[in-house]
Structures are given as structure tokens and as C-alpha cells.
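User: C-alpha cells for this one?
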Amino acid sequence: MTFSPRPLSKLAQLAPFAFAIALLGLVTSGCEDKHIGRVCDLDTADAGTTTTGTSSTIQGQAVECPTRICLLPQMQTTTNTGPLCTAGCGSDDDCSDGETTSDQNSRQCKKGFACTIATTVGAFCCEKMCVCKDFIDLTQDYHKVPTVCTPGMSTCKNVH
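Assistant:
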């Protein structure tokens, strides 16, 4: 008994092509670009001016930021850097792909990003976020958790 080869169905002929497309989709969708460091608008009257920086300002519905979070952190050092898109983080590595510039006149971040607590009040209290190092006094331990963000010492809803 001999068998004659059957022609492959159209579906079977397309299977390798479909597999290649699916694999390409998986490879290119591995990491979402959160555009940490993109200049954003806080939608406040003084968003475009330099402030004394005694408090952080966070806009949780910034449409220009994929995470919807626009941050102007408390200034520990003088800078002309403006509000920037940010994201939650667990370590500095989570912030390593933040957008920076070498243009000293730009409102973008120049020194890179650190994962630190941006505020101890409000909806984002005690949450670690990618904060531009232009705002941070790098001679201090900026990874230290503020006492008010310690479990048992805080009324912040984000402290567990």
C-alpha cells in the first residue's frame, strides 16, 4: 500500500508565518516605555515657574504620561528642571531608562533618576517613584524611608 502526499491546507501553509508574527509580538511587547522623564504639565498656575520647592506637586491624571503621573518633587537643590512624568518603582534599576538631556537650559532631567519616596502626604503618600536626581541632595541618603512611612508610625493608606 502506498500513500500519496496530500497537499497542505491553506491553514497549515500559513502556520509558520503566524508563529513568526506571534513571536515578534511577544518580543517587542516585553517592556512598556513609561516615558519617565518626559516633560509634563501639572495643570497648576505656577507649573512653568521655578518654585522654592518646599513641597511636592503631583498630578495623577496627566494625559501626556503613560502612567498618568506628573511629578514636581520637593527641591533639595536648586534646578531649572520642571515637572516630569514618573512611575512607581522598587529600585533605582526601575528608573534607569528615564529620559535625560545634557542641555543645561532644558526643563528635562540632567542627572538621571532615583527610586525614592516623593511625598509623605496625599494620594501618593509614601509611594516610591522615579525622581529626577536634579532635585535631590545626593550627599544625603535619599533611599532612607521617612519615619512617617514606617508601618505602625503612619496614617498613610499606602503603608502596609
